[in-house]
Amino acid sequence: MTARLIDGKAVAKKLRAEYSVRIADLKARHGIVPGIAVILVGDNPASEVYVRNKITACRDTGIHSELYRLPSDTPEADLMKRIDALNADPAVHGILVQLPIPAHISLPAVLERIDPSKDVDGFHLYNVGALVAGNTVFPPCTPFGVQKLLEHENVPIEGRNVVVVGASNIVGKPMALMLMKQEATVAICHKKTRDLAQFTRLADILVVAAGVPGLITADMVQDGVVVIDVGINRLPDGRLVGDVDFEGVRQKASLITPVPGGVGPMTITMLLHNTIVSAERSLKLGS
Ligand code: NAD
User: Fold this and answer.
1) Which residue range(s) make up the domain with 37?
2) Which pLDDT belongs to residue 1?
3) How close is the Cα of 102 to the center of ligand 1, in Å?
4) Does pLDDT of 287 surpass 70?
């Protein structure tokens, strides 16, 4: 069997076209434009690229965006003041602090300062708790993008064995919760897991977000598995690869995401989605 590729770029493009219509409708009927504020502290080159991509995606879709650049030695109190001002600004429906932030600033304090109703990344404790309880407010963008891809490909989830490799707060853990909510049987593996292959071989759906190139090889998966590779790794020769040995694993899988062009384009798309939903919710609150 050779896997069919899941074209994340195409799915993202289709969804973004739908979002543009939704935004135009919000403007025409209610006179509001969804708005997002992005705060970038410091000059991490990777963050610069991510932020630029987010701003461009917003512009192309019709979302108003504001970028706040703060120097790397910004005191925590100044960042908090900026967040407070954005929390109070009715034109801002989403607030995103680009991670990582400098070490002298407390990450939990920053995440909890953002109004949960504008927390389009879904990282505030309130939103994390809502996800655990099964009442998701803003699903975190990367696992949400994976969920949308599975939905788009009509992959059945209920009763399936799902193995998530990687247990981070932004990808692995929320991913597992989302799939559990859909009544999959979920195992979460991480760097201390003994005999990773013993788990991955049970997977009907395998989601890998470890940040280790070539971690999953063909002998570690069963025939017909659906493979979602979240990893993004830059090799010394400049190539961008995922965590899965793509050429080997695609010979056994039924569906597989490429890197690049799989999960990546979906992450920003889900940020657009959450911002639009936030703007729509603000209308209901206001009326
Ligand atoms: P992280 O470093 O916060 O977490 C990595 C997780 O993988 C940890 O739970 C760790 O225990 C586990 N892990 C590490 N080595 C392992 C191993 N050998 N075996 C099993 N588990 C192992 O990383 P993260 O932020 O969750 O990101 C993971 C990967 O996903 C990275 O490559 C990152 O670049 C990528 N990523 C992609 C997107 C996207 O939009 N496609 C978004 C976020 C992260």
Assistant:
1) 31-117
2) 77
3) 20
4) no
